[in-house]
Amino acid sequence: MRWDLRSKSLTTDVAGGDQRTILMGVLNLTPDSFSDGGTYLEHAAALDRAQQMVTEGADVIDVGGESTRPGADEVPIQEELARVLPIVETLSADGIVVSIDTSKPEVARHALESGAEIVNDVTGLRNPDMLSVLSETGPGVVVMHMQGDPSSMQQYPSYQDVVGEVRDELLQSAARAKSAGLLASQVFVDPGIGFGKTTQHNWSLLAATDILAATGYGVLIGVSRKRFLGELLNEPDPALRDDATAAAAVACVLRGASALRVHNVSLLRRAATVADAIVRAE
Question: How many helices (H) and strands (E) in the chain?
Answer without folding.
Answer: 10, 12
